[in-house]
Amino acid sequence: MSSPRLLVLLLVGLMITPAVMATNGRAAPQCAEFDLSDVVSSGAGVAVDPGACIIVDLGVRSYSTTLAIDYEIMDDAMDVLLFDENGIQTYKNGQNYRSSFIAEASFESMIGSEWLDWTPPVSINAKNWYVVFDNAAHDGDEGMGDQGGMTAKFKIQFAPASTEDYSLLHDTFIVQPGEKVNLATFSVDSGSGFSYSAHPISGTGDIFIQSDNQLGGNLIIADTSRDDFGGSDSQLDWIIPEFLDLQNLNLMVEAGPNPLHFSLESWFEPVLSPVIVDYSNGTTSIGQKVTLDARDTPNSLQQIRTLSWDFDADSSYDAIGDLVEASWDTPGLKTINLTAESETGETTMVSHQIEVIDISDPVAVISGSGTRGLNGEWRLLRLSDLVLQASNSYDDHAVSSASWSIDGAPMSSASQFTVSWSQIGTYVATLTVTDPSGNTGSINSTIVVYDSTVPILETSDIVEIKEVYRGEEIEFKAKAVDLWDEQSALRFTWDLDLEVDSNNDGDLRNDPDVTGPILITSFDSNGEHAFALTVYDGSNNSDFEVFKLQAVDPPSETNLFGIVAIIFLVILVVLGVVLFGFKGIQRRHAIEMLMENGLSAEEATLRVQEIARTTKLPPFAKAVQMAGMAEGTVVKSSVQLQSDAKRAEMDAIYGNDNGSQVDQHAGFRPSSPVRQIDPAFAEAALAAFSDEPQAKPVVTSTPVSGKVKSGGVTLPGVIPPTNHTLKSDCTSCGKAFTVTMPQGVNSAVVACPSCGSDQLFER
């Protein structure tokens, strides 16, 4: 039966047993591939022909989920191999895959049924898993496992396994013969239940629990072993004893003479037993907080969801958590209930009692409707009444009684007490209060009896002082009068800084910076200064006044500064005049020197200005420096420069007759023929350098050969009758001028008409 037919039959409900045909040869297997949903619903099973294979995609699975797998192989044995997304490529490529499949969840030459609970290996990312039903002999199996034969059928069930709430281990293992393996290590509270269920697949072995100090030996913890389990499932239910509370324990397995292949599930039943630790030793006082600690409650498996506290046994929770504080406002024996709720919803409650006692004294408070002074004292006018009350006194429980005394003499036991005096003075009232537990508290309050007359300052001597010298000490005297108090009973204070409230009474003007009737002080800065004077009588009645004055510099300092400033200003003015006059004189001398050398007044002035602009002259430059005539420099006017230039051109054309240049070696040289110059050439050259229009030279038809030196002008053999005009700016003075050059003349050196500087013209 062909592969396409198998696919069609599966899609229509797998009503007829499907089959997969074998591939030819020993090349990489060509397996049919299906999703898990395509094969799990096949009631009769999926057929695989000899030499054929099927790959079932199990989907992406995470290591955090244990999977329940059921295999059933019918009619003939075949290999059932589990691969991850990497290992399956090895199988598909026909490579040796024996180390690539998951041995714990794979079976070679399997026939019959088997189930196992398997957990994918821990991985950062979830992987795609595949199971291969192999009924072929092909490359990569090393001749092991099923090699084909007859057509076989398979069934598969694959889904997440049910797990316990507090699971320790849930997986399938293979242990080699005689090998001992530590499957898991755990540490839990005593009283917790521990269980495991082992399902043998093949082989036999022992499973047991050892403590850390028993590892490597044959000793085990009593009542924890299942020996020679195999052939049927084994179960253990065990309670952790108190001596193993939070001790490291190890779940061990040891294989028999054959490989031990088995599935194992182990889990805990955590203990729920809340514990209260009272750091007050069962006694506290009213209002005093006590710490209640439930952190010793067994919770190694994180089985506690909440811990709820009821501090007064009224069935309502007052706090949540494992470490709380509680206090009470009345004395007596208090019952505390702690309820623990597990993650599964179970609850357990424990109780604890604390005695609360009253050890605090009541607080006495004197109140009334009178006037209070700056320091909290009562101020009472002579012959007036003051009503004092104890009603604002308080206690952590209650106030049961009150009593009054004046200057130590008992006066009243009422809650309210009235006092009055005819003489001024200071008196002390004492209030004592008592609570029901016999604790007492007292408070004293000062009562100042005063008169109503006010002292008056007499400040005429101070007001007269309007101006003082800076830094100079000055004396101020204070005077005042009072109808009730003597002069000697009056108190004077001076406030020297009206921007600071040093006594913190809210008034910037009455700070006692200096006390007494006399103030000696000085002012360190110029300008306006202010200070205040206050007078007090025996009843603290007061009067005050603010004074202002000016502080100025002493005369000597002011005059000296002015003199120095004037002298400095005069020196600056004189230096400026001298420098300005010197430069003007030297500039005039420079212009005169240039005019004496033949320059016009305009040319001399321009030359001095140009030198001043382009040359860095010293501040006191002399006339010769301003004229540019230092170090023997020859100065010529524009006319002189033009004349010299023309003379030089003529000398170049006709020769120099002054005989000043004599060749001393002339007698030893061969004679040279004398060059003959055509007059027409000379006229043409003169026309090129003339400021006035020149007549056109007459050119004969007789050809003339030769060269004429004329400052860069080369005269051709034939000069046409047309001229050419060139215009340029002087490279020295910048002024523009023009030159008319005859036809055939390509270059000429001409003197600038303005400054006489030689200029080269080319076309």
Give me the secondary-structure topology:
Elements: H1 3-11, E1 32-35, H2 36-39, E2 46-48, E3 52-61, E4 67-84, H3 87-92, E5 107-118, E6 127-135, E7 152-160, E8 167-175, E9 180-186, E10 193-202, E11 205-211, E12 226-229, E13 234-239, E14 249-255, E15 260-269, E16 277-278, E17 283-285, E18 290-293, E19 304-310, E20 319-320, E21 323-326, E22 332-342, E23 347-357, E24 367-368, E25 371-372, E26 378-381, E27 386-389, E28 401-406, E29 409-412, E30 416-419, E31 425-434, E32 440-450, E33 456-458, H4 460-463, E34 467-469, E35 474-477, E36 479-481, E37 491-495, E38 514-515, E39 518-521, E40 527-536, E41 542-552, H5 555-596, H6 601-614, H7 623-626, H8 638-654, H9 679-689, E42 723-729, E43 736-742, E44 747-751, E45 758-762
Parallel strand pairs: 1-3, 17-23, 26-32, 34-41
Antiparallel strand pairs: 2-7, 3-6, 4-5, 4-6, 4-7, 8-15, 9-14, 10-13, 10-15, 11-12, 11-14, 16-18, 18-21, 19-20, 19-22, 22-23, 24-27, 25-26, 27-30, 28-29, 28-31, 31-32, 33-36, 35-39, 37-38, 37-40, 40-41, 42-43, 44-45
Helix pairs in contact: 5-6
Task: Tell me about this structure.
There is one protein chain. With 763 residues, the protein is mostly beta strands. The protein has seven domains: 158 residues, Jelly Rolls (Sandwich); 103 residues, Galactose-binding domain-like (Jelly Rolls); 81 residues, Immunoglobulin-like (Sandwich), CATH 2.60.40; 70 residues, no CATH class; 89 residues; 77 residues; 107 residues, no CATH class. It is built from nine helices and 45 strands. Strands 1, 2, 3, 4, 5, 6 and 7 form a seven-stranded mixed beta sheet that branches. It has a six-stranded mixed beta sheet with strand order 25-26-32-31-28-29, with no helix packed on it. Strands 17-23-22-19-20 form a five-stranded mixed beta sheet, with no helix packed on it. Helix 5 packs across helix 6.
